[in-house]
Amino acid sequence: MPVSEPNKIYQEVIDALIAMHRLTDGYTPNHEDQTAELAVMIGRHLRLPAERIDVLHMAAQVHDIGKARIPLELLTKPGRITADEYGVLKTHVQFGYEMLNKISFPFNLAEIVWCHHEYLDGSGYPRGISGDALPFESRILTVADIVESMSADRPYRKSLGMAVALEEIQRQRGSRLDPVVVDACLHVVQEHNWRPIAN
Q: Range of 99's domain?
């Protein structure tokens, strides 16, 4: 996606991070790319300004960059994982934030990534923050992440299907997920027949 000229250098930094991540993990960067595509479609439907679309796109492209610190055998483990393993998986959000926060972005990219598993009702992680403390871009990213994750094949399971993914965000609409964002996601998925591309 073309970015505005002032953000070009930051997009190049993001591209370099993604290229490094692809050396060890073939799945996660593809998931991030597809999540970014859906997030941008939602953001445009909601008429976010172009500069905020740039930031949303970049944040979505690296929202799971912290998984570079997680053992690949855990990321691709088939079947159920233990509570301890889930605890390790959850650390990817903090790792991602710490990595991105070292870069002097002139916008809240690291914060958006830090919040992509947080929920409106405070039941998310890693900080359990809620409501107005969540950047609007992170609310978009959270919804796009859920839909892409559930509707795409994962290394450890087959796709659950788009219908199941959309039912899930509707179930969480207004409690965990921003209702405005959920409605926009439903619209763009149905209007554009958006589907994740098989890896």
A: 5-192
